[in-house]
Design goal:
It is a single chain. The chain has 15 helices and 8 strands. It has 460 residues and is of the alpha/beta class. It folds into 3 domains: 91 residues, no CATH class; 174 residues, Nucleotidyltransferase, domain 5 (2-Layer Sandwich), CATH 3.30.420; 97 residues, no CATH class. Strands 1, 4, 5, 6, 7 and 8 form a 6-stranded mixed β-sheet that branches. A two-stranded antiparallel ribbon has the order 2-3. The protein starts with 28 loop residues before the first helix and ends in a 5-residue tail after the last helix.
């Protein structure tokens, strides 16, 4: 019986069509990215205004290239350059031009502030298209690996030991070099050894300086609380004063660590069952009223979410207004923050769980052995008790239920669909800019899913 197969002819020359849109679907994300980016004001982007040197790529093209590639899981500048040759949609976006990886990397690195402004512009565009109305928001954080190895961490005690040892080695090598000069021996080897040890010594000096500066900043931040405790103790009389509060230390503890590759990254772990990773804590505030757009984003160097609630709410652009309701899990519990937000934002309703998420689960059958089931933590503080009672009401349960199905899918899409699990840049300012770009790409992908491209007219 004869088989019928499609003809696979690789020898016949085939040219790309005169219009690359013939090879790109009408519903492809690239069309929406191009139209939306063309509407953004990009005057803040770094360009050569003198007009000298080689021709430069338009900022609209470069920003659209970064957004489209990030939305499709292409983050490396070399992979983006390769996509301008291999990916038909990217080739259409760049109009069959091919920016090299140095140009792409420099544009991303030099325009982090302008990209942050574009993040706000896109949210305003979503509001203009009637796809966003600020009301209920849910917030959470996730650990994303830094561009550094955890094996490059050094403690303050060990850094001091290495610094003293390296200074002795440098002095000894300098004496050997002087002896070699007197004996007319080969002087080439010793200078290299001296330079290598001096470079390591500079790293140890910088690591100790950063740890000491971090300790001073921490002490300064804790000084107000220390003075408050001292004042409260002085007002008490007799034996009820209790022990004197200890002043915050201004020197690092011996076990405090710093990473030599990325000093601002921290060792973090998700839970006691997980291992430590060199990471940053990426925060996101998501619209919980239907659009699931990321309204605010920032990066923290703190492993836990404690103390991040205020800063996360402040990351929402002022032009969008203020949310009416905020949802967060137990990692954000802080009674002082609750009281302060109640005074500063009287119109804001907080729904923050004071128990772990498994306490909210209604189980008909529990697979855990009875001796492994821990009862909910006992709460005695009136502010936290009021919050717990608030979440126990039918209305509170209904509102808080929105949290898990809004912010958690956003992180899932970023990590599983986009594939973004590690930062490429180093240092908190650059990492914050890269997270901004990731959230911008997510918002474009989400707006396209919501049908924003159908309502967006081409820019004039």
């Amino acid at each position: 019986m004869a088989h019928r197969f499609k003809n696979t002819d690789r020898d016949t020359p085939m040219l790309l069509p005169p219009d690359l849109r013939d090879w790109v679907g009408q519903d492809d994300l690239v069309h929406f990215v191009i139209q939306a980016v063309e509407r953004l004001p990009l005057t803040a982007f770094a360009v050569n205004h003198k007009g000298c040197g080689d021709e430069q790529y338009p900022p609209h093209t470069m920003l659209a290239l970064l957004i489209y590639c990030y939305a499709n899981g292409i983050f490396s500048s070399r992979r983006i350059e390769r996509a301008t040759y291999r990916d038909v949609a990217v080739r259409y976006l760049t109009a069959d031009t091919h920016p090299d990886h140095d140009t792409i990397c420099a544009f991303r690195r030099n325009n982090l502030d302008a990209i942050a402004a574009s993040f706000v512009d896109v949210l305003e565009l979503a509001r203009e298209l009637k796809l966003l109305e600020l009301g209920t928001v849910s917030l959470d954080g996730t650990h994303i690996r830094a561009s550094a190895s955890k094996d490059k961490n050094v403690t303050y005690e060990r850094a001091q030991q290495l610094r003293a040892q390296l200074r002795q080695d440098v002095d000894a090598l300098l004496q050997q070099a002087e002896g070699a000069d007197r004996k007319n021996e080969d002087p080439q080897k010793l200078p290299k050894e001296i330079a290598r040890r001096e470079a390591l010594l500079e790293k140890m000096d910088a690591a100790c300086s950063r740890l000491e500066a971090r300790a001073r900043a921490r002490a300064e931040a804790q000084r107000a609380d220390y003075e408050r405790k001292v004042g409260a103790r002085q007002q008490r009389e007799g034996s009820t004063k209790g022990p004197s509060p200890k002043p915050p230390p201004e020197t690092p503890e011996p076990h405090e660590q710093i990473n030599l590759t990325d000093p601002q990254a921290r060792l973090m772990r998700k839970s006691k069952r997980e291992g430590f990773t060199q990471s940053y804590n990426a925060q996101a505030v998501v619209d919980a009223d239907g659009s699931q757009l990321i309204l605010g984003q920032r990066v923290s160097t703190c492993a836990s979410d404690a103390g991040e609630l205020e800063a996360d709410l402040q990351s929402i652009p002022e032009t969008l207004g203020s949310p009416t309701t905020a949802l967060a899990d137990c990692g954000y519990v802080d009674k002082e923050v609750f009281e302060r937000l109640g005074e500063e934002r009287p119109g804001l309703q907080l729904y923050v769980s004071v128990h772990r998420e498994d306490a909210h689960a209604e189980r008909r059958y529990d697979w855990r052995p009875p001796d492994k089931i821990k009862p909910p933590k006992t709460i005695t503080d009136p502010v936290l008790l009021a919050m717990a009672d608030k979440l126990k009401t039918p209305e509170g349960r209904l509102i808080y239920r929105k949290r898990a199905c809004t912010v958690e899918p956003a992180f899932g899409i970023i990590k599983a669909v986009l594939g973004f699990r590690q930062f490429l840049l180093r240092g908190l300012p650059k990492v914050s800019g890269e997270w901004n770009l990731v959230c911008l790409a997510y918002n474009f992908k989400r707006l396209h899913r919501l049908g924003a491209g159908l309502n967006l007219a081409p820019a004039s």
